[in-house]
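FW: tagging you since you asked about this chain on Friday. Here's the raw sequence from the shared folder, copied in full. Didn't touch anything.
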Amino acid sequence: MKAVFFGTPAFAVPTLERLIESKHDVAAVVTQPDRKRGRGQHVSAAPVKQVAEAHGLPVLQPERLKDPTFDAALKALQPDIGVVAAYGKLLPDRLLELPRHGMVNVHASLLPKYRGAAPIHRAIMAGELETGVTIIQLVREMDAGPMLKLASCSIAPDDTSETLTHRLASLGADLLLTVVDELASGRSTPQAQDHDRATFAPRLSRDDGVIDWQRSATDLHNQVRGLHPWPHAFSFLDRARYAILQSAVAQCPEAGRCTQPGEIVEATKDRLIIAAGGGTALAIQELQPEGKRPLPTRAFLAGHRLKPGARFGQSLA
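HL: got it, structure written out here
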């Protein structure tokens, strides 16, 4: 089949690469316009565009999906199918209906759970032990279309959003190709979602990173993992902001010591233990002072004298 691919970040790259390697024809790649990226905020192409250009594929980067020039370019291609993987914008009805077989989407959750923009992050933050990928037919309502194929994936205790994204991207690429082959041969069997079981995974913001030390150490560890590599969990100490990059659930060093959430109960060598809710404790393994480079705990404590009894908080106050 002749496919048009919609995608932008690294998650979408394996799917695009598998399509390029397949018997199907990728007629064009639609991706977000070049943006400022990284610490230097230099304008650069997103990963999908880089792959498309490396393979000599036509690239379309509309600022607005209502652009008549973009519409005309897509119609001229007469695609059989549209493949969407983390494109970053909702597609209007006229685009959903343009390809002969419609648009299919690679969604990183086991639908109907975690519909929305941040399914991987939200699943880890919720302490899920399993997630997966669902290939769906796109409809007007977000992530609510018929399911064409699902595959599950376990979430390891030390998984972050970054590590899990890599595995799901590969899983989704294989699954998508199976679906495209089935659609081409007329063997596809769509299955309606149970909308009553739907949960939602809204887009992340920096506010999601605020650590509430009243929560259990397990919840906080899940927050740290789910928000890595962006926007990171963070807390304040002595009017300074610290991003918490790696953590672990820890034992309280002494019985009765972990009763004041946010309080430092140990700061020696490579051990930085903070009291959390319910008498639990969180070990900080890597952190980043605002404006500085990330440091493992041992290196941080070598240059910062933290005393037990000091307390991390949710604000600069």
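FW: Residues 173 and 249 are 34 Å apart (CA to CA).
HL: agreed, and The mean pLDDT is 95.
FW: great, closing this out.
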